[in-house]
Amino acid sequence: MLANLRASLWLLGLTVLLCCVAYPAVLLVVGQTVFRSNAEGDLIRDRDGKVVGARLIAQPFTEDQYFHPRPSAVSYNGAASGASNWGANNYLLRDRVARTLGPIVKYRGGPNKGQLVAPDIEKWFQQDRYQDNSGIVAQWASAHSTLATNWVKADPLNAAFVITWQEGHSDDVAQWKKDNPSNPEPKPEDLAVAFFTSFSKENPGKFPSGVTPEGSTDKKSEPVSEGSDIQSIFFDMWRQEHPDADLEQIPGDMVMASGSGLDPHITLANATYQLDRVAAKWAETSKGDVATVRNEIQKLLKSNARAPLGGLAGVPIVNVLEINLALKDRYSERPLGDK
């Protein structure tokens, strides 16, 4: 009995020593000597030594002077990796893709070759007719009530706009309550479709959008007939009415999120598609020639592009944080052309 107990205790002690002490210690030594950067999270530091991110996790960039990452279903939250899991027949996926395309897609052929589609979307929207019926905004809200509801919930400014409307449209609110007796105290998002239906009648060819009036620092929501909201929200409806429009093909990773929502890379094709915007903004900032800046950034992209497995698989990709940091270092604090 004692011999068996002693043998079991020796086995337990040896297992704990090997698995809980020796093995982690070996991994720690190897990690800190051979793979130190990887073991510490592939941290990226600026030229002052300050940690600005990691090579493995994407960050949101929205300014024109920077390359933008892939869309993220988790808003680039490193603690919430995941995908939206929307299927191909889910209109929320179609809407997200369309909102990305509207402001950036261009004509591929015809008399408008190379020109943005966005101005034509605005002109079409201002006519306030869709499929031979008036009231584009009302039709949009009625057909896609979830999108209308999400618009109200997306910004306190939008909810405030609906609350103001609610105070001045008691008859419409009363009718909504009559049609929905189980909800006598509706929230602003509950009234989204009723709000947009009423708004469309009173403001044909316009959409409520957040703007900052000239001479003011306070943003408020007011009816607009042009701008990024029109271009993005109504691109899909415009496309359905213009199926024969010859549009450029967009790199897939510009509009599709990765499975983790944190992919730090974009394809070189994606970066090249964004190049004109980025170059124009840095040329403006550095007071340089656009063509010269574009050529410099293009060379920077190619030097930073890497294909998986040394080029044996996949396509060239670029780390968004690294390339944006390189752009900032190159153009932000020194005269254009310095090496």
Written overview of the protein:
There is one protein chain. The chain has 339 residues and is mainly α. It has two domains: 43-84 and 257-331, no CATH class; 91-241, no CATH class. Helix content is 49%, strand content 8%. The chain has 14 helices and eight strands. The strands form four sheets. The chain has a two-stranded antiparallel sheet with strand order 1-2. Strand 3 (129-130) and strand 4 form a beta hairpin. Helix 12 runs antiparallel to helix 13. It is globular and about 90 Å long. It starts with a helix and ends in an 8-residue tail after the last helix. The relative contact order is 0.13.
Can you give keywords for this protein?
globular; mainly alpha; 8 strands; 2 domains; disordered C terminus; 8% strand; 339 residues
Reconstruct the topology from this structure.
Layout: H1 2-33, H2 36-39, E1 43-45, E2 51-54, H3 91-101, H4 118-126, E3 129-130, E4 133-134, H5 136-143, H6 145-154, H7 156-168, H8 170-179, H9 192-202, E5 207-211, E6 220-224, H10 228-233, H11 235-241, E7 265-267, H12 268-286, H13 290-304, E8 317-319, H14 320-331
Antiparallel strand pairs: 1-2, 3-4, 5-6, 7-8
Helix pairs in contact: 5-6, 5-9, 6-7, 12-13, 13-14
Entry summary:
With 339 residues, this protein is mainly alpha-helical.
